[in-house]
């Protein structure tokens, strides 16, 4: 085995050497190292014998130099010191030079001991030589880097004379994120910014420097320092800022009357890299300031890594973010199922070209297409299913209730049954807080899907457990669960895009009621917690994501107006239009009869339902399908109320078809 691998590696080494020999930079670097090696040894000899020089040592010193040169150059090449691009010399390269120098010195001392038994040589010369060699070689590499940086800076200055001056950037926050931004500015002179200072809340950082840029004062003094330093833009570099902290910083930034941007929060940076490429405008999600989600990556990886994963509604808000988050756990194959051509194409291209993940199967079709689903499951054998496809727009679904039955209820039932037949390992249903004491068809349809999930999960998993006690091998059983949460910021049905368009047109912003409130979280947080909950399920649970405190929609509208640089009520009017069909003033996360149980995760709880009347559920479902086929709005609501007693239908909304 080892001889085969060696025979494979040797031709590669020789081909690499042959290629190196054709490069001018290789010979220039080799020549400079040759001069430095000779210089180092002669300086070492001179330092040792500065007062006296025995004749024996002089001859030995001259004779040994060719051997020293050959050993050092060969060792340096073996350590890859002629392969890198030295304009990008890093700490790792310096460590490599140190290792190469140490190994070369050990080999030289061993060779001198073997050939000459150290007669006529001074041991201290070799010690001094090792130190000076490291300093000269590493100094040469570092000077190459700084030389290229200086050259690039001069070119950048000349370019800026024609393309306009760089913007003067004042950074808010002097932590690790600011350090990365300043390092990028220092290394990449083509960027259109130059940093003029930093402000921070930590008094101990004032008058210190980060990459040569001074921390000039406190955040509260931002307007004063922005004026003094003639800053042209402000960048908030506090990735872990809470909602109140971000609100305070934004208020101060607005006082400067300068453009201001921010870096994404840690939860939005899937790979954790912070760069000027990621900076963006402040969004309402920044002001919401949800805490960073801490995931048990090993637990999630145990059910996603190297597995075939199917995501329905893959082009939607939650579905597409689930796709992005799942990639971090290296699935063997990711199946994207969506009924919308444009959405499916968009997420497919994004994952392919931006995330460089090619193990994708985009399927254009509806979940309720049983023939299509059967073929997909037979061919690709998904192990994990995330069901995110559903109609979620309350007024539209209220006026077209038959579509809620078809697209939300029946589609979920078909997917559950096919998952059981094909022995899917885990099935995660994405639900909503509107399923709690629903007052609209959409919420009632999602509550029905939760009940269906529990109906299929409970008896089958109990049977599997009984079989397991009688057999040595455990019976296969699909683990079903649902994840229930409130509104997500920036989703396709969110009010924020509507408010932003209304602000751009000069108002008014339309809010249905002064006291209406909703739970909110970011799309990234929701997707991360869905993955975490998917690892916790044992069968039939409804997981509840902790949403924090509800937010008044009117307050949200005011904050969005402020973010646009305008004054609420004075420059942009807020107009109240009245509650829409099926809408209620506030949402809940728990329905009557459900008990909350804490989980091992700070942001996830589990609800266990007492519902056991599955016969009543399936009988009602048959009548519901009949009413939906006839497009009977009132009949659909009546049957839904029979199945979901806590549902309060709005019979005043008769639907668009009479």
Notes on the protein architecture:
β7 (308-312), α11 (317-327) and β8 form a beta-alpha-beta unit. The protein is built from 21 helices and 21 strands. α11 (317-327) crosses α18. With 658 residues, the protein is α/β, with parallel strands linked by helices. It has a nine-stranded mixed β-sheet with strand order 9-8-7-10-11-12-17-21-20, with helices on both faces. Strands 3-4-2-1-5-6 form a six-stranded mixed β-sheet. The longest helix has 41 residues, at 123-163.
Short recap of the structure:
This protein has 658 residues and is an alpha/beta fold. The protein contains 21 helices and 21 strands.
| Residue runs with pLDDT of under 50 for 5 or more positions | 1-14, 266-272, 461-465
Look at the structure and give the mean pLDDT. Answer: 80
Structural shape: elongated
Taking all Cα atoms into account, the compactness measure Rg is: 34 Å
- The oligomeric status of these chains comes to single chain
The assigned structural class equals: alpha/beta
Strand element count? 21
End-to-end Cα distance, whole Å, is 78 Å
| Residue fraction in strands | 5-15%
Largest sheet: 9 strands, mixed
Number of helices: 21
Strand order of the largest sheet: 9-8-7-10-11-12-17-21-20
Helix content: 40-55%
